[in-house]
Write a structure and sequence with these properties.
- The longest helix has 18 residues.
- This protein is an alpha/beta fold.
- The chain has a four-stranded parallel β-sheet with strand order 1-2-3-4, covered by helices on one side.
- The protein is about 40% helix and about 10% strand.
Length: about 180
C-alpha cells in the first residue's frame, strides 16, 4: 500500500502535468505534506514556470499555491513582452505574477532579460551600437522596475550555441561585441 505522501505526490504530478506545469519529484523520507513544505524543510524552494493567463484558473492556482514556494514567469518578463515598442515598457503581466507570488509567500525568479529569441520586432531589425544601447537600456529599465521583488534574474538566456561546441550562439546580440554578456 502506498503512503499518503506518495499518493499526494502522484496526484499533484498528474494535475500539474494536465495544467501545464513541470514538476520534478524525488522521494524524501520524512518530507512535508506538500512539495513546498518538503523543499522548505531542506532550505530549498520548489518552483514552477507560470503563464499569467492561467492564474484565473482555479485548479491551477490551487495547486500552484499549495505545492510551490517559488515561481518564474513563462513569457511575461521577456523582452518582447516588457518592451513591445522601443522605449515603451509594459509590466502588467509580470506585475500580476509578482503580486500573486507576494500574496502567497512565494519568491520570484526573473526570466529573462535578454535572449536571442522572443525579441520584439523592432530589436530584431537593429544591430551594432544601436542594438547594444537598446539592450542595456532594456535591462536597466526592467531590472529597476522589479528591484526588490525578484530574488534572481536570468539576465542572459542561452548565449551559447547548441551542440556542445562551447562557442557563443550566432545572434544579433553577440554581434554587438564579445562583451555583450558582461555589459548586460
Amino acid at each position: 500500500m502506498k503512503s499518503p505522501r506518495t499518493l499526494l505526490a502522484a496526484a499533484t504530478l498528474a494535475v500539474a502535468l494536465t495544467t501545464g506545469m513541470t514538476v520534478a519529484l524525488t522521494p524524501a523520507a520524512g518530507a512535508g505534506t506538500t512539495l513546498k513544505a518538503a523543499a522548505a524543510e531542506k532550505g530549498r524552494y520548489f518552483g514552477a514556470a507560470v503563464a499569467v493567463g492561467k492564474l484565473s484558473t482555479s485548479a491551477y492556482t490551487t495547486i500552484l499555491n499549495r505545492e510551490f514556494n517559488s515561481v518564474v514567469a513563462e513569457n511575461e518578463m521577456k523582452w518582447s513582452s516588457t518592451e513591445p515598442q522601443q522605449g515603451v515598457f509594459t509590466y502588467s503581466s509580470g506585475d500580476r505574477l509578482v503580486s500573486h507570488a507576494q500574496a502567497n509567500g512565494m519568491s520570484v525568479r526573473g526570466h529573462t532579460l535578454l535572449w536571442h529569441a522572443q525579441q520584439p520586432g523592432w530589436a530584431q531589425g537593429m544591430s551594432g551600437s544601436a542594438l547594444r544601447n537598446a539592450m542595456i537600456n532594456h535591462v536597466t529599465q526592467v531590472a529597476t522596475h522589479y528591484r526588490g521583488k525578484i530574488y534572481a534574474w536570468d539576465v542572459v538566456n542561452e548565449a551559447f550555441a547548441d551542440g556542445g561546441s562551447g562557442g557563443r550562439r550566432d545572434s544579433n546580440l553577440q554581434r554587438t561585441g564579445n562583451d555583450w554578456i558582461e555589459a548586460a
